[in-house]
Predict the structure of GAG-pre-integrase domain-containing protein.
Amino acid sequence: MTCSKKFMRNYKGFDAVDVHLADDGIVQAIGSGDIVINLFSVGRFTKDVGPVTFTKDGCYGEAKGTKWKIGAREGKGLFKLQMTPVAPEQANAAKSSGCQGGTKSYLWHLRLGHIGHDGLNCIVTKNIGIGIDISSVKKWDVCEGCALGKQTRVRFQSNTTARTSKLLK
């Protein structure tokens, strides 16, 4: 059922008929036809992907830690598909209190496995990252994890001068 004829193909009108809904509501059907909009199966989504939440303004689903706006309300009980990711505010505005850099770019440097300046710049230019300020990269102190990762050991001595010639000497 739909509230608009624009979503129907092969529409055939008929005299109004009362239709009883599951929530004890009654609506009048005035025609029938084939729905031509994309349908979304909530049952299939919850089974295969994750939970779905309905609010006053839309329908939201969660997949692999990302919240998606699946649809926007388009009438009584009808949602138009959107499938747009919803960026969580707390992740974008997070501050790293324990970091010596203290900037969002430094926090993303840590989150992305100590990615370099060029890697962060690439993410910013391709608009993949949200909330990364590449201008703050220059303000970083030396990252302790990166410095330890680049540390090398001194080789062991190849010859020693004080070698014993007899047992237990």
